[in-house]
Amino acid sequence: MTKLLTVDGIEIEFEKQNTDHACNWCVYLRLKKKDKEQTFLMIRANEKPFTRFTYNSGKTITLSEEVVSEIFTNSVNVTDILDKES
Fold first, then answer.
1. How much is the pTM?
2. pLDDT exceeds cutoff 80 at 29
3. DSSP β-bridge partners for residue 45
4. pLDDT reported for residue 48
5. 74 pLDDT band (50/70/90 cuts)?
6. Gap between the Cα atoms of 20 and 68, Å rounded
7. What is the rounded distance in angstroms from the CA atom of residue 83 to the CA atom of residue 77?
8. Burial of 3 from C-beta contacts in 10 A (0-12 / 13-18 / 19+)
């Protein structure tokens, strides 16, 4: 059975691991409720994570470029950080 949670905020992090690690990828799910934050789940995998961005219209669920755009406008932009490292 799936657990249903209601939270104020959610963060999903995809982390590529160094070749010395026991897995290739870690996926972290962090939740925020009121003034508390915690890592709720950490998943280790060797296969690259697969993501899907969909929109539920009430009648159909479709892949959505608008949802991709909306999610990525709320993502951490590391371009400036990467430019400074080089």
1. 0.77
2. yes
3. 25
4. 95
5. confident
6. 32
7. 11
8. exposed
- Please measure the distance between the N-terminal and C-terminal CA atoms of the chain and give it in whole angstroms: 47
> Looking up tokens 């430019």, which residue turns up?
83
CA atoms of 39 and 41, how far apart (whole Å):
6
d(CA 83, CA 5): 38
> According to the 3-state scheme, what is the secondary structure of the chain?
CCCCCCCCEEEEEEEECCCCCCCCEEEEEEEEECCEEEEEEEEEECCCCCCCCEEECCCCEEECHHHHHHHHCCCCCCHHHHHHHC
User: Residue 81: what residue type?
Assistant: I
CA of 54: how far to CAs of 13, 69, 74, 76, in Å?
A: 19, 11, 16, 21
Per-residue pLDDT tens over the stretch 44-60: 999 999 999 999 999 99
Q: Looking at the chain, how many residues does it have? A: 86
